[in-house]
What does this fold into?
Amino acid sequence: MTVKELEEKLNLLKSDYVRVQGDVEKIESVGGNVRPATRQLRDLEKEISRVRQQMREANT
It folds into this structure.
């Protein structure tokens, strides 16, 4: 992937992360089960970390 593609992917992942965070807050406010959403947040965090690492490697 090019740096530009990685940046686009990172922006998309960040957007997804913010959306899921909002979902967690809504679920918590009604007393729902947040476990699936928090699992999704962890997965997104890992993917964001991987993309950032790829960007660092691409810039060296």
In short: Helices lie at 3-29, 35-58.
